[in-house]
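Form 7-S
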Amino acid sequence: MKEEKISKVLYPDFFNSDYIIAYSEVNEELKELIELSGYKEEFTRKFRKTLIMLESLKRNCIKQKSFERLIKNGDIYSIRLICNRDCKR
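Output:
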């Protein structure tokens, strides 16, 4: 059985989109990163807002500071989410 290389965003909140896809491990990686951080609610809110922006702006999303293109002339983007809290503990 061939393993899928892409996936829909399922975590932290299911986001149904035909435009937005991610690499297959993204859901598990997000879960590992934020479950123990104590910022799940804040992250979920910001992440969902960013996905909605990407869905509506599509390629023009890179005009927003929350996005950057990873491959020149390609359709691979990175989302920047900034936490305003002091992360030193």
